[in-house]
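Handover notes (outgoing to incoming on-call)

Open items:
1. Endospore germination permease: sequence verified, structure written out, both below. Nothing else pending on this one.
2. Nothing else urgent.
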Amino acid sequence: MKNYAYNEITLMQYIFLINGAQVGTGVLSLPRVLADKAGTDGWIAILIGWIFSMMANILIVKMVERYPSATLYEILIRLFGKIIGKAVVLVYMMYFAFFACSTLVNACLYIKSWFLPKTPDYIILLLFSIPTFLVARNGIRILGRYSELSFYLVMWIPLFFLIPLRDGNWLHFLPLLKEGWKPVLSAVPTTTFSFLGFEVAFFLYPFLKKKQYAVLGVAIANTITMLFYLFTTMVCFAYFSPEGILEYNQPVLNLVKLIEFRFLERFDMILLAHYLIVVSTAWIPWVYFSVFCSSKLLGKQDHSSHVVVLLLIFIGIIFWHQPTWNESEKWQIMIVKGGLLLAYVAPPFLWVYSWIFEKYRRRVNT
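Endospore germination permease structure tokens:
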């Protein structure tokens, strides 16, 4: 009997969980950041970042498929022993919690800036915490259903970017590689933050019903994320001038702000409200996997109380500290550094180490 039969997820849920964990608030400012580093050639950096994320994600799957019924916690204990294994799990737990907190803070700042300027940050976070608890307290299956449903609910959003694209100028992209490859390569680390989230495959694999399609699933999830980033970035580059796009912190929101209908003036408000559904599919998995690690470390089966404690910690941080946009950007830089280690360096290391470990173990047993 499978260890996680009750929480098994389908391939579609697997895909949308990974894609949801990747797509957050970063895309709203991504075109401006890429333009600042590489000009209108910044879209090439997205393709390079996609290749790196695909390689790292495939290595994750190849590593965990050696232990098809084990979670990352059990794999690390097997490979490194209880002390080192639990220490690594603790690092992942803190990384997931910090990522969730950073994403929630970004969402709060956006809501406060565009909708509720006089509402305290901790009140907004408290409102976010209610649906977060209702979803995260359940298992992977409920989380997968939520991610899949959310994806279908927001599929219409990219279609509206075609409206301002009619006034875009494709000459902004010419000539290609205006200043060579150096600016493009300098923008690649920026895209790594946007693709972070695929490391949840470490935890999702034992719950996947048809494990033979795991590599296909991560390939589709990363490709969906890449196409979304590429489309929004190219639309912004085509509409705004190469110098003009640098004047906006969130050019994606400024772009949709231009969309007006006879019966609706502020379409950007509706778009941002619906985009919160997309962002929630990023922070809720991070909350869940953080408390999943904590419950494993403490030997608890029910993680509901851990969700409550973690969300209360987040609310307390916001209440006492009240982070600003600059502090949020500093947190993102810290996450990028941690993500480079845990998402891009750890998979190849664990893949090679597990291969050597299992080969040595078989030789000793024989």
